[in-house]
Amino acid sequence: MSTATSEVAAPYAQALLSIAKSKDSVDETSQIASDFLALIKESEGLSDFLTNPIANADAKKGVINQVLGDETNAQMRNFLLLLVDKDRIYLVEPILKQFQSQVRELKQTVLAEVISAVELSDEQRETVRQKVQRITQAKAVDLETSVDPDLIGGVIIQIGSQVLDASLRGQLRRISLQLGV
């Protein structure tokens, strides 16, 4: 995320957090933000539509209402509709990511990005979560997982700027460096 994008996204993320705190719905709003981010990541069409400056604002609002459904809390729906009105919906991803980051800070939670060769089981996720919690001393750990078959086996865990490479590919690379191959 560029500095300019970050500077524009920050006040919106802070505003969403303030609203969620005032309505005592930080956890619920954070979950909806998470689900919405996952949907944007999975659906390139949705992301392209929301970021398209030519697309009609009413159409964007209709899609947001349809995607969120009737059960979604009013604060998140109104917030996303406000982003459309202010021509800032193209920043929805950086805004919601920054919001998630602020929620983690508030709750003393760290984000661990885990890349594995295969999809992790629930048991493996829990093992990684506990290990990261011991390393960081955080109250809680959020995992963001992805799969990269090129790792051959094992995992790479990134916590902020710290990277723990326990992948087979990483081990092979270290051995080749030691052997001077």
Mean pLDDT: 88
Main sheet properties:
4 strands, mixed
CATH superfamily of the largest domain: N-terminal domain of the delta subunit of the F1F0-ATP synthase
> Into which percentage range does the β-strand content fall?
15-25%
Helix content: 55-70%
The tally of beta strands, per DSSP, is 4
What is the fold-level CATH name, i.e. the topology of the largest domain? Peroxidase, domain 1
Domain unit count: 2
Number of alpha- plus pi-helical segments: 8
Could you tell me the radius of gyration in angstroms? 19 Å
Brief descriptors of the model:
8 helices, alpha+beta, 181 residues, Peroxidase, domain 1, globular, 15% strand
Give a verbal description of the structure.
With 181 residues, the chain is of the alpha+beta class. The chain folds into 2 domains: 3-105, Orthogonal Bundle (Peroxidase, domain 1), CATH 1.10.520; 108-179. The chain has helices at residues 3-22, 26-42, 44-51, 57-68, 74-85, 92-106, 122-136, 168-179, and strands at 109-116, 140-147, 154-159, 162-167. It has a 4-stranded mixed beta sheet, sandwiched between helices. The protein starts with a helix and ends with a helix.
